[in-house]
Amino acid sequence: MTYRPLDGSTPAESVQGPASSRRRFLRATGAAGLGAAAFAATGGEALAAPAGDQPDAADERGSAAAPAGTRSPVRTGTGLDRLPHPLVIGHRGAPGYRPEETLGSYELALELGADVIEPDLVPTKDGHLVVRHENNIVETTDVADHPEFAGRRTTRTIDGVPQTGWFTEDFTLAELRTLRAKERLPQQRQRNTLYDGRWPVLTFRELADFAKKRGRELGREVWLYPETKHPSYFRSIGLPLEERLADELRRAGLAGRRGRAILQSFEPSSLQRLSKLVENPRIQLLGGATTQPYDFVLAGDRRTVADLVTPEGLRWIASFAHGIGPTTQLIAPVDASGKLQPPTTLVRDAHTANLLLHPYTVRNENGFLPLDYRRGTDPNAYGDAIGWARYLYELGVDGFFTDQTDTSVLARQDFWAAKGVN
């Protein structure tokens, strides 16, 4: 069955649009290569970009020609310039319609027009990478219904927070394959429970193979956007993620500057490790302003996200990453009632530091929207998600993670039309 976007276009048309239009839009916004140097956290020491990622002279001229803060730095030489701009990123697939991180969720996201699909990665006991939102699988699988695994229920401290449940690192891949996925938010997305039990736990290798095959069928590249989850924790128990991910990327032909994978993590040290293993573009995820990356906590680094989104902090991030993935409130804050406040300078400051912005997460439901875009009082009813998505595009973001791909695709079409992109 083929799912079509709401405007009746084919999925490929809705995602990519005419190639000449996308190129014109990139030129109009001054998209150019990232600068080669950035400042380290201590002393402002200039650091060269990772080997093989140096922009050529033409890239530097293009960057200098665009007024600071107005361009969108789609870095040439990383493969990101092959993608539409701005991006629509299928956050764990299409979890607004199917249980997250399942083959059904990813397949639907692509049919609805996602440019990129995002998996979260955690390891099994025997070292395989599986696609789950968390290593605690009590909310996303039927593990609690398996009496043979009752004895595996335990309490672990993950990134300083005690959790009780069942954890992927206590299961072999063969054991995990006996489980089935279920909806994580059944009270909010009751229709998704229709698919409980339909799909097994997916490995990253299976998703990479699916993306390659589906790309051939769609006639376009299908990109992956994997996240290393709790990397310091897994390294501490002898299951480091970065080396395993790099191996899988190489096996699938996704490694390197021309690969079809963008790498992300909330822990800067994870991206720094990955930068030494593969040359894929890297995005630093950022939580709330008062939070800290957990590797900072372990290292005694007192900086918070608020420090990292200053011009100095952004220059430091640019020494090892190509962009940031901030929560939307770091760009478009709301007050205690949920009403939008004036936007911050983060878009301008990040672009000045030659960083892309891929904020998270755009969802249709009122409970996830600013008050200005809600419709009615039911938190589970749909609000004006298209208007909210377009607002973010107009602020200058370079794409965002979304749970409902189709509405974000429509918002982008509206945005392109307003910019004269045919």
SSE layout and pairing:
Elements: H1 11-16, H2 19-28, E1 37-39, E2 46-48, H3 57-65, E3 87-91, H4 103-111, E4 116-118, E5 120-123, E6 129-131, E7 154-158, E8 161-165, H5 173-176, E9 202-203, H6 204-218, E10 223-224, E11 227-228, H7 231-236, H8 241-251, E12 263-265, H9 268-277, E13 282-286, H10 294-299, H11 305-308, H12 311-317, E14 323-326, H13 346-352, E15 356-357, H14 385-395, E16 399-402, H15 405-418
Parallel strand pairs: 3-4, 3-16, 4-10, 5-11, 11-12, 12-13, 13-14, 14-15
Antiparallel strand pairs: 1-2, 5-6, 6-9, 7-8
Instruction: Estimate the global geometry from the Cα principal axes.
Output: globular
Q: Major sheet, described briefly? A: 8 strands, mixed
- Overall structural class, as computed from helix and strand content, comes to alpha/beta
Query: Gyration radius, to the nearest Å?
Result: 21 Å
Question: Approximately how much beta-strand content do the residues carry?
Answer: 5-15%
Q: Quote the average pLDDT.
A: 87
How much helicity do the residues have?
25-40%
The strands making up the biggest β-sheet line up spatially as: 9-6-5-11-12-13-14-15
Q: What is the terminal separation in angstroms?
A: 29 Å
Oligomer: single chain
Count of helix runs = 15
**Secondary structure: number of strands:** 16
Give start-end ranges of low-pLDDT stretches: 1-21, 30-70
Report on the structure:
The protein is of the alpha/beta class. It is 31% helix and 13% strand. The chain is built from 15 helices and 16 strands. The protein has an eight-stranded mixed beta sheet with strand order 9-6-5-11-12-13-14-15. A hairpin with a 2-residue loop joins strand 7 (154-158) and strand 8. Helix 8 (241-251) packs across helix 9 (268-277). The radius of gyration is 21 Å and the shape is globular. The two termini are 29 Å apart. The model is unreliable at 1-21 and 30-70 (pLDDT under 50).
